Amino acid sequence: MKRLALPGPACALALTLGLAGCGPMRAPLPDRLDDETQKKVDESWDRAFTPPGRFDHQGLLDLMVVARPYQIGVDELSFRSAKRFAGGTAVMEVRYDRAKPGDDLFAVTVTDPAGKVIRAERYTRAEVRATVEEFNQTVREPAEPDEPPGVAARRARLKRIQDVFPPEKKD
Fold first, then answer.
1. Which of 17, 51, 80, 119 maximizes the CB count within 10 A of its CB?
2. Counting Cβ atoms within 10 Å, is residue 131 exposed (0-12), middle (13-18) or buried (19+)?
């Protein structure tokens, strides 16, 4: 399985707007932007659609693919994805409304083959952010004696993940 690598301009835009990372969403909720960055995003949207036909069919798709405005600084975002597996279906849902930060949602619901819910988990933005931050910290291989506290536990958590979803092999 290969991931799509976005071209350099997407990274440049992300850096210009002061956004961390490059590529699709880094977590199952979009980032909440500070006021100045949000203002820049809003101005970009004004430029993109003033006039409404500023970009032709391909130009609009180019804009969406490279700049990723569908996920950066949006007012609302929601998506639902589902994956069937041997024991049923896993459904993941994301809901985000910039005006209602307390309503941010990342949920995972597992149903059996008959559709009966057998597990339902809801995660707060704080839980998602803390987990992203934990896994963004470097875990050295092999372990080193001077590792900060908590690295061994994070290494064990990462191993459990990699036992289920092995890391991609780099070409």
1. 17
2. middle
